Each structure stands twice: as structure tokens, then as C-alpha cells.
Amino acid sequence: MQQQRVIANRYALLAELGRGAMGVVWRAQDQLLDRAVAIKELHPPQGIAAEERTVLEERMLREARTAGRLNHPAVVTVHDVIREDGRTYLAMELVNAADLATVVQRHGPRDSVWMAGVALQVLGALETAHNAGIVHRDVKPSNIMVRPDGAVKLTDFGIAQAMDDPRLTTNGGIVGSPAYMSPDRLHGWEASPASDLWALGVTLAHAVEGISPFERTSTASTLHAIMNEPPVLRRASPALAEVIRGLLTVDPARRMTADQARSRLVAIVQGTAQISAPVPVQRTKNPAGKNPAVKIAAVALGAVLLAGAAFGGYLAFRPENGDAAGGTPTSENSTEWSTDTAPLPMGAPLLSRRIATFGRGGDVPQWNLSGTECAKDFLIQGSPVPGSVPCDKPHGIQLFAAATPLWDQPKSVAYPGLQWLSDFAKKYCGEQFQATASRSKEALGFTGLVPTEQEWQAWNDPAAPGRQEVLCVVWKQDRAPLAGTLVG
Questions:
Q1: Cα separation of 199 and 213, whole Å?
Q2: What is the CATH topology of the domain spanning 98-319?
Q3: Closest by alpha carbon to 250, among 234, 230, 224?
Q4: pLDDT at residue 139 tops 80
Q5: Which residue from 37, 20, 16, 15 is spatially nearest to 311, judged by alpha carbons?
Q6: Which of these, 105, 202, 352, 387, has the minimum number of CB atoms within 10 Å of its CB?
Q7: Quick one: pLDDT at residue 77?
């Protein structure tokens, strides 16, 4: 039996919770105080430059110092900093929770009232930090932990910046996650409470719509969307949409303040919200008086440092999705979706990377696979998939992922629309395909299947209940048989 590791003659490492390029997070037991804790261990790869390691260590210490200055229930408590055998560790409050990004990915968009309650807690943590002169700089769903009882923790203050401190970077770049950066930061302004509030607005939009409003297939296109494309809000309640648009006002001087956001969020939670004149989301204002194309190009070429390169959340190290989530059109296993919408003739193979429908009146009129089952034949326009075959026998397709987007809503909930389901499927199936493709050396085709409105509304059909799932299906790009499972 492997001997249990004990850090500082006090913290017994029990189980690994998450691992990334720069370290590991452990579930541990504080043997002195007899309590469970999380241990974040900095463990950069071999060969990393001494200067870069110093920066990573300083970020960990900054996280500890920052959390130590903030007394708020939505801020993770740091108990201890340990340096032992050439490694640095943080002993932190252990929170048994999933991050908001994972909740949305697994279970679909959040209810507006529920999300307003989460936002109030995050806003409280941010106000506490701002009053202490600290800007978080990386507010996003993956840094917001939500416990089953609804309690929230804002994590990863590792790149937080005191307003009177120099930036913690080695090359003068902007630190943060591109899809959540405010236009003022992209124009070269310093991080500020207003830029944190912009990131909170993006987070709200992501959570209630199910997809990130500005994230695109490349950093450059993401930054272009931030500067030029207002968020599409289809599922947010009118009152929450007003908050989101207020927080996403381009001019920071006119952006909704924390006090204004708080009063509106409280009203949403209490059911007393009233819609006022909309706060405009400006797309032409240039707060820095500079050429945005020049600044965006400069940032896209290397000034943006992804915060996740150092650490993700304290419970798990999560890789950034940014550019990788989109792939490239020339890659064999790209997740770039087709823009072809021309109808397919009956009997034609369904196309890779083009959303199709299943169920009553759909491209695939009958679908009887579940879990990660396999089917003998390929997806054909107008042909059913009546049943499964063993995945260890030759087969044509495999269902590699499935999600119920509105899992927490009653089955009688209205059909959210083909476009909304397609957007959800593209995001969800694209992310799941990345993991699936990494297990195969073959060039793979894949697509997302979304239910038709007739299929969705037939949920109470006693003979054949309709399905309300989004399905992700994979096959070999050359249509040769698969010989084994691609999942797990």
C-alpha cells in the first residue's frame, strides 16, 4: 500500500480532486484541527523557466493574501500557505460543489430567478473586494462554485489585482479570459470594478442562455464579438435581460453600477421586478479614443494571457475552451460547424458538423439509442435508427453524449425553438467531441441531433413518449465501420 503523503506534518492528502498543467488539487484532512480541507499544490511541468515559476508562485501567494483580506461568505477561505521540499501549497476551505460552467454544460440554461440569487452572492463578494481596493479580473462561470443548497463561492483570486499594485505579468500583457473581458480593458484601460461587473454580466448571459454570448472559434473573433455584437438574449426574463444589458454597456462610465444591479436582482428574487427604460448597449463608443482594430489585433496576437494557464478553480484545474473549443476548419477532427442549410434528399447521408433533427417529422424520424449505445447503420435522411448493436462489434455510429437542456423544468415546458436547441447542441456536442476525438487516431465525423417540436411536445404520449434531449453522434469520416467504443 502506498504511504499517505502528509504536508507540513499536518495535512494528509486523501484523494485527487483535479489536475492541470500547473498543479493538482487534493482533498485532505487537517490532522491538527480534524477538519477536511482542499490543498492546492503548485506543480509546474519540468523545464519551466525559473522566471515563470516565480510568477506562478507569486500568484498563489497573491491568492492567499487577497482571500485573507476579504471577509465574505462567498469568498473561499485560505487557511495556510506551505512551502516544503521546493513546492508551494495552499490549504483552503473545501467546498463540495460544481462550478457554474459545469452546471450549465451538464444541465442546460439556468432559470432567471435562480441565477439572480447566484448573482447577488457573487456581487456581494465583488463589492467586498472592490471596497478593499481589489479587482478580481477573472469573473466567469468556471470560477463560481454553486453548492446544492444554493450557496456560492467566488474562487481563484490568483490574478486579482490591488488597484495600486503593478500588474502581475511577465510581459505586460492583459491577464484574464478573453470572452469575459470588457471593451475598456481591450482598449488598454486598467482592470477596475466596472470591468468585473462587465464579466458578471457575461456570466449571467452564459448561465441563462446556455452558451457564452461572445465566445467564438478564435481569440480574434471573440474580441470582435465583444466590441461589435450585442448579446442574444432569448431565455432571460425581461428583468434579468435588463440587468445583463446594463452590465454590458460598453462605456464604463454609463455601465450599471453594483448598487443598481443589486436593487434589480433583489427585485427579481422577490418577484417585484419592474422593467424600466432599457439601458442601451453601445457598440460605437470608444472609451479610450483609440483605433479599436489596432488594439484588438495587438491583443489577439499575444497580449491576452489565459488565467487558466496558471490555475483554474481551487477544486479542479480546468483547461480554457477559448480557441481549442472551435478547432480549425482544416483540422480532420475540427469542431467547426457547417453553415450549409440546403435540404438533403431522402436517402442521403446526414452531413458531419451540421445539426439535424430527430423524432416525429425529423431528419431521423425514429431514434431508439440511449446512453452511449451504437447502431449498425449510418445516419440517413429519412431513415430511422430502430435499435442498438454491441459496440465491440462492427457498427456505423455511436451516441457519444446526450444532454437534457431543460432538465430542471417540467416536461410540459414550451419548445425552446430549433435555433436555440441548435446553438446548445453546437456548443455541447463540440465540447464533448474534443474528448472523444482525442481517444481516436481516426478522422471522425460527428453531429448533433435535436428534437423536433412534435417530438418535444409528445412527452406524454403513453405509447411512445417524446424525447427532449440533445444527442451527439460520431462515426468514421470515411464511413468505414467502427470496431470499438469511442467513449470511456
A1: 11
A2: Transferase(Phosphotransferase); domain 1 (1.10.510)
A3: 230
A4: yes
A5: 20
A6: 387
A7: 81
Assess contact for 194 and 254: CB atoms under 8 A: no
Could you read off the pLDDT of 81-137 as tens digits, one per residue?
888 887 888 888 888 888 999 999 888 999 999 999 999 999 999 998 898 888 888
Q: Which set of grid coordinates corresponds to residue 209? A: 442562455
Per the CB < 8 A criterion, the answer to whether 279 and 245 are in contact is yes
Q: Would the pTM count as exceeding 0.85?
A: no
Smallest Cα–Cα separation from 486: which of 450, 442, 449?
Answer: 442
Catalytic residues: 138
**Rounded Cα gap, residues 94 and 238, in angstroms:** 36
Q: What is the pLDDT of residues 210-269, one digit of tens each?
A: 988 998 877 888 888 898 888 888 889 999 999 999 999 999 999 999 999 999 999 999
DSSP per-residue string spanning 378-401: PPBTT--B---B-TTS-BSEEEEE
- The Cα–Cα gap between 48 and 391 comes to 42
Taking the C-alpha atoms of residue 11 and residue 14, their distance in angstroms, rounded to an integer, is 9
Fold annotation for 6-93: Phosphorylase Kinase; domain 1 (3.30.200)
- CA–CA distance, 141 with 180 (Å, rounded to integer): 10
40 labelled ligand-binding: yes
Instruction: Encode pLDDT of 23-60 as tens digits.
Output: 788 899 999 999 999 888 876 666 677 777 777 777 77
- Distance, CA of 417 to CA of 424 (rounded, Å): 11
